[in-house]
Amino acid sequence: MLRYLPATASLVALALTACASVTGSSVADGSTAVSAGTAASPTPADADAFVAEAERQLGELNVENNRASWVNQTYITDETDALAARFDRDYTALVVRMATEASKYDRLPGLAPDTARKLYLLKNGIANSSGLASPADPALGSELSTIKARLQSTYGKGRATLNGKEITGDNAEEAMQTLRDPAKLQEVWTSWHNNVGRPMKADYTRMVELANRGAKEIGFADTGTMWRAGYDMSPEEFSAMYDRLWTEVRPLYDQLHCYTRTKLNQKYGASVQPASGPIRADLLGNMWAQDWGNIYDIVAPKGAGDIGYSVTDLLVAKKTTPEQMVRIGERFYTSLGLAPLPDTFWKRSQITRPRDREVICHASAWNIDNKDDLRIKMCTKVNDTDLVTVHHELGHNYYQRAYNQQPFLYLNGANDGFHEAIGDFIALSVTPEYLAQIDLLDRRRIPDASKDTGLLLRQAMDKVSFLPFGLLVDKWRWGVFDGSITPAEYESAWVELKRQYQGITPPTPRSATDFDPGAKYHIPANTSYARYFLAALLQFQFYKAACDMSGWQGPLHRCSFYGNKQVGAKLNQMLAMGASRPWPDALEVFTGTREISGKPMLEYFAPLQAWLVRQNAGKQCGW
Ligand code: X8Z
Ligand code: ZN
């Protein structure tokens, strides 16, 4: 759909583009008529006609926008930036105009239920459809779209250095995963944050002004409030749910932080990682310290608990290619009874980084025509992180295809957290037993029950570590948008939120001229991030439901529903709903519950949490 699909990237991507061909400048200047609905006292029939016409116009422009955005992101030049900005301007102007016009109808008595739902989505789904609202003044709308395209491309063209030599962003990410020399890690981390983030600050500051002006013009207090409005509840209720969920899972994070800090202190010594206080951000195997699975070798329990294999090593040993990794992912979905990806997917996707041009390497999934033109865009490396990312992106693609029969305004996830959770939920089924089933792991090397702690710790390093990062990115942005974080405080507030929630500190001193948030893709791309926090919990809810459905009796983390057609059919039932119903209805279809909850995740990790508490006994945890 529209917007978003790609979840992150894709969402944004889609969002960003817009189309011109259909209505051209008449859309941009807001003067195009949607003929129905201009009457003084509109009727429910006028509302039906308005919605039908809105869907027609948005649907057309959206596809054009997708095309421009795809070309821009897979071939960054000044020209494709300009084209993408132009399409984004026109599409966003149309989205904003439709949101405004929807207000004329949404309180009418006697609206058909679908019309009422679509009016709600037109008014409150802008975060998903276009990311930011543009001001009605065409000059300001153009300026906003130009800045958005420039910020995103600046990120795509970003470079770090290693040993004084320039490296691309995808290679910098890989270096952060694999290097173990603190001086080199510090060089890559600092060069990336300085080179990519700092030059964005002026653009970002202006973008916030323009986007807030657009949000206010359509009745929101600011852009952050507009983003929180898209969850079938009030923005205030959403914020309360968000904080409540963090409170539920925080004790588990605190234990993992404490244990990991001890291991890093033992490995590197107190001069690199002190035994107390926050953890140095570049030691955790990820540029943003957002997931720590890549340093499992440093934290693995000695001897008996270790799992004895790494997925990266297995992939490398089999000489697996990036395309074969995508085929492995597809096979999981087809094993559930879902259809194979179309031939065009394999022809049109960008699976590895092209060597001759600038691209956005950050992974995304697309449905260009909102029907079957599915694609992913990745710069895939042969490692376990990217195997999970492949499953993640295909989750978006399978979701997009499942709801492709819905009307335009329903071409979306139940909420954006659902869209992000599907592929990760599937990847939780990548158990040792499953790896043996697909011949990656020798059956004789399947770890026995004595290795469960190691298996759980490996998962926790990716999944539990992510929680506070997933939470804080939009805490920062909501503060930026509502003005409680001023431009002079952009950097200090970011550093402080990372300290407060993650217990992480930068490896080199930062100052007010730095702009570290810009060095994380979703900030320049304006993809909301609360979705990933929700997805981090939802994926365990889906997983537990699927394992229950398949009659699994053992420990939850050993369950794989690979090949289970009953799970596939039920999943498809939820996915095919798209955004046609409020998200609790969709959640109920698959899990039987209507609440997002941290409990299934806590249940999955319960044995590990008890083990961590024992390991941390006598230590002063916290920071
Ligand atoms: O951006 C993504 C996906 C595309 S939607 C690769 N993710 C977040 C990130 O990388 O920061 C997936 C997990 C979190
Ligand atoms: Zn995603």
List keywords for this structure.
binds zinc ion, single chain, binds L-captopril, two-stranded antiparallel ribbon, mainly alpha, 623 residues, 6 strands
Describe the protein:
The chain is mainly α and 623 residues long. Among the domains are: 1-123; 311-446 and 556-581, no CATH class. Helix content is 57%, strand content 3%. It contains 26 helices and six strands. The chain has a two-stranded antiparallel ribbon. A two-stranded parallel ribbon has the order 3-6. It has a two-stranded antiparallel sheet with strand order 4-5. A hairpin with a 6-residue loop joins strand 4 (364-367) and strand 5. Helix 1 crosses helix 3 (44-74), helix 8 (169-178) runs antiparallel to helix 9 (182-197) and helix 21 runs antiparallel to helix 22. It is globular, with a radius of gyration of 24 Å. It starts with 6 loop residues before the first helix and ends in an 8-residue tail after the last helix. The model is unreliable at 1-37 (pLDDT under 50). It binds L-captopril (X8Z) and zinc ion. Residues 7-8, 392, 396, 420 line the site of zinc ion. L-captopril binds next to helix 1 and helix 17.
Number of helices: 26
Provide the spatial order of strands within the biggest beta sheet: 1-2
Q: Which structural class should the secondary elements be placed in?
A: mainly alpha
Estimate the strand proportion. Answer: under 5%
* Computed Rg: 24 Å
- Runs in which pLDDT lies below 50 for 5 or more consecutive residues are 1-37
Shape: globular
